[in-house]
Design goal:
Distance between the termini: 48 Å
Strand order of the largest sheet: 10-11-2-1-12
Radius of gyration: 21 Å
Structural class: alpha+beta
CATH superfamily of the largest domain: Hsp33 domain
Shape: globular
Number of helices: 10
CATH topology of the largest domain: Hsp33 domain
Helix content: 25-40%
CATH architecture of the largest domain: 3-Layer(bab) Sandwich
CATH class of the largest domain: Alpha Beta
Order of helices and strands: EEHHEEEEEHEEHEEHHHEHHEEH
Number of domains: 2
Largest sheet: 5 strands, antiparallel
């Protein structure tokens, strides 16, 4: 089954909902970066959130960057989503110690840390991007995304994320949901959602039981019901090209390029988001110097 997300609304029109199955894209990220279990879970949750948030923008040429700096051993987590919800991401330290809350339950908060911020950068194709930043609440990422929407965008939100890493360190399931109240939502709708979230339980348990994103939203929204409006396939997708890497090298300036050429050997440039390596020969660098 391919990864995909669904968007919709409750039948009363008071709640926007989105849910995602992100198992394959999180597996791909773990493979590219060689992450250990705690880093896999943290990066996977951030990628899952970024995919849903990017898809919600609905700006054809825009992008959404989610950056988390919590002071924990993983360092900085950076994820970028396109308007469809395709994502790419990286972490400062992919190999981090195994920390569990209890046997079988990874402690993502300890890996991310809480002494820092969650920052969202929305590029809507205008002159300046919108940037919002809030202090981290728990480092568990779902709680922090919830706090971001409440504090920075004043939208009451509930976000739940889950990544289950198996004993062989392979990602077994990954996904999540994000629900937002629209203005004027009555108290009984809020009460119904709170009850639905409580009864639904953890995302990973629902995913492991084989529930699809539609089923998860059905569980969470309960008696409110859901009308689905969009189903979009998503994946781990990087937009790096040799031309973009060439432009980045040119921006280094003449002095650094002279130094690279002076070493007299091929110069590899690896994309920080994927496992693509672009190799530049001394002759290639000489051509770049001419352009400089």
């Amino acid at each position: 089954m391919n990864d995909y997300l669904v968007r919709g609304m409750t039948m009363d029109g008071f709640v926007k909902v989105v849910a995602i199955r992100s198992t394959d894209l999180v597996r791909r990220a773990a493979q590219i970066h060689g992450t250990t279990p705690n880093a896999t879970a943290a990066l996977g949750r951030a990628l899952t959130a970024a995919s849903m948030m990017g898809n919600m923008q609905k700006v054809d040429d825009g992008s959404m960057t989610l950056q988390i700096r919590g002071g924990g051993p993983i360092g900085t987590i950076t994820c970028v989503s396109d308007p469809q919800g395709n994502v790419r991401g990286c972490v400062t330290e992919p190999v981090v110690p195994l920390v569990e809350k209890h046997p079988g339950k990874l402690d993502v908060g300890a890996t991310v840390g809480t002494d820092g911020t969650l920052t969202v950068i929305r590029d809507l194709g205008m002159k300046e991007p919108y940037i919002g930043s809030v202090p981290l609440v728990s480092g568990e990422i779902g709680d922090d995304v919830t706090a971001y929407f409440a504090q920075s965008e004043q939208i009451p939100t509930a976000c739940a994320l889950g990544v289950l890493v198996d004993r062989d360190q392979r990602v077994k399931v990954a996904g999540g949901y994000l629900i937002q109240l629209l203005p004027g939502a009555p108290e009984e709708v809020i009460d119904a959602l709170e009850e639905g979230i409580r009864k639904a339980g953890a995302v990973t348990a629902m995913l492991e039981a084989g529930l699809a994103p539609e089923d998860i939203l059905g569980q969470v929204c309960g008696s409110l019901g859901v009308v689905f409006m969009e189903n979009t396939q998503v994946g781990y997708k990087c937009y790096c090209t040799r031309d973009r890497v060439t432009a980045a090298l040119i921006s280094l300036g003449r002095e650094e390029l002279e130094q690279i050429r002076g070493e007299g050997k091929p110069f590899p440039v690896e994309c920080q988001f994927c496992d693509t390596v672009y190799t530049f020969t001394p002759e290639d660098v000489a051509e770049l110097l001419e352009k400089v």
